[in-house]
Amino acid sequence: MIDWLLFTLVTPVIIGVMVVASIDDPGRLGTIGLLYASGYAAWSIVGAIALRKWRLAVLWPALLVLDWIARVNLVHAAIKALRQPTAECRWESPARYAVAA
Amino acid sequence: MGPVRKLDPADNERRAAGNAIECGSRRRERAWRTGACSSYAFVIATLNGASTIASSVRVCSSQADTYVVSDGSTDDTVAVALAAGATQAVQLAVNVGKSAAIHQLVDQQALLDRYDLICIVDDDTVVADDFVARTTSAFTPGVSAVCAKTESDWGAAQRWNPIVASRAFAYWKYQAFIRRGQSALGVMNCISGSNSVYTSDFLRSVLRPDTPYVVDDTYWVLEAQRRKLGRVVYCPQTSAKIQEPTTVRSWYKQNLRWLWGTFQGIIATRSAAEPRSSTSPTSA
């Protein structure tokens, strides 16, 4: 539970605090954005090296966006579980490559 | 239940009998430690998986007995699975749901009595060549489930797909920085349902046709923790490749289902009561 909470909240809280503190300073806001993007790009490069998949380094902007959607996803799932704490296991596999291609 | 077709019944029975003799309970601990135990079976539940199941079955059946249950598929899943080397492939006449299909297969074939270790894989999962040997050796005394490393099947056709890239990245982060630590501390709260191995004793305690969470493996791993049914460990020495969603919509939907199941488990675990199945139909 803690790992999910940390993933979901830490980055938004830190960025939120920094943005609020710098709300009147566009230059500083730009720097915060640049630092965040650079940090994510660097993190993607580490992943690209570890996985030996150089495309990860190129796709970092998409990964960043999906990371934020994943946080929304997590909150959505928590709400869904509160509303439906039990549900039958179901078949819901995404389309297979062979079919999707 | 529909007809059961066997590739080679006599051979299968000989292998099963041999397994039972080789890996009796007195020898189990030593056999697991040395990786010499061959009482190991794969179970693959599938629904219209004819396009992917051959590659899954081929690599599984080269390492251990492989059983397939087709949950009311309308394609030729069963024939494809048998042709690829499945020990047995069972066609259910009607769709009963994944948990119930696995339960029916395991029950009908008495797999929990015939095998010490059972690996439940998805019909798009391709395990590594050393999967059985590596995961078997991870079953030290007290371990009830072993989860191998999950890798995204990031092939040429998906090479610029950001969703597949995102999953590959997420798996790497999670497995390198969270799962290893959780495994070392004995607090794993998430396994890969597509490529995890369980002891028969453990499955006897948790396998049910009406899994109360939307994801069956989430129920199993959280029950292991809640009821103290044994340790769940991560085995990064071997891996399995799985297919990923290729659109934002399908990715979001799959994530939602997985996380929904996780939160269902958290809620049930906190209440410390045996979770009961939902009686009302649900929609994602």
Discrete helix count of chain B? 11
* Main sheet makeup of chain A: none
By secondary-structure content and strand pairing, the structural class of chain A works out as: mainly alpha
- What is the gyration radius of chain B calculated from CA atoms? 18 Å
Summarize the helices and strands and which ones pair or pack.
The complex is a heterodimer of chains A (101) and B (284).
Chain A: H1 2-21, H2 26-51, H3 55-58, H4 60-83, H5 97-100
Chain B: E1 4-6, H1 9-22, H2 25-34, E2 40-46, H3 53-61, E3 65-70, H4 77-84, E4 88-91, H5 98-108, H6 111-114, E5 117-121, E6 126-127, H7 131-137, E7 143-152, H8 162-185, E8 195-199, H9 200-206, H10 216-226, E9 231-242, H11 248-271
Parallel strand pairs in B: 2-3, 2-5, 3-4, 7-9
Antiparallel strand pairs in B: 1-4, 5-8, 6-9, 7-8
Helix pairs in contact in B: 3-4, 10-11
Task: Explain the overall architecture.
The complex is a heterodimer of chains A (101) and B (284). With 101 residues, chain A is mainly α. Chain A is built from five helices and no strands. In chain A, helix 1 packs across helix 4 (60-83) and helix 2 packs across helix 4. Chain A starts with a helix and ends with a helix. The mean pLDDT of chain A is 89. Chain B has 284 residues and is α/β, with parallel strands linked by helices. The longest helix of chain B has 24 residues, at 162-185. In chain B, strands 1-4-3-2-5-8-7-9-6 form a nine-stranded mixed beta sheet, with helices on both faces. In chain B, helix 3 packs parallel to helix 4 and helix 10 packs parallel to helix 11. The relative contact order of chain B is 0.14.
